[in-house]
Write a structure and sequence with these properties.
Elements lengths: L9 H34 L2 H32 L18 H28 L8 H9 L9 H30 L1
Helix pairs in contact: 1-2, 1-5, 2-3, 3-5
Amino acid sequence: MRLPYWLPNFRSWFNAVALTLLMIGITYAMDYFLKNIGDLLNLAPWLSGAIVFLLFLFPIVAIAFLHNWLHTFLDMFFPESRIPEDQVQTGWFPSLVSWWEGIYGWTVNVLSSLFTFYLLGVFFISPYSSTLLTILDENLSRCNFSLPSVRFTILQIIVAAYLYQLEYLVKQRFFAAARR
């Protein structure tokens, strides 16, 4: 049974859940790193800009390497799981496709987070908070991360699944055009 094209397929849901769990883990790792390096940043403020830039790029690199290693593992042990149009992953260093997945995964995370903040702000505004900016300021100004709420995580996974479905449909369109 085929689903309608506008419903995310299994691969899109898997990517969305895996990305969300990975980003929660990366967020905790970054929080731990920043708490332990805080004294160094106070001693060398010029270093903080470089560290912030590297922390911004870290999720892209992590997603690219994990994508490459996962597909290398799948190609070795489950070759039938590979889509015929995908390249065979070889080596430990990410290919161009893995770097694309890293950049796209980071973009999906940012867009799904922003869209989820927006939805939660519109539909669940507290009567004690006057605007969405007040809610975001209260949540983002704490400087420490906490486990995201279940409501936020579920909405973020749904939005991410639809963004991955969009990527899948675009790839299918390109593959169909290349076959002609």
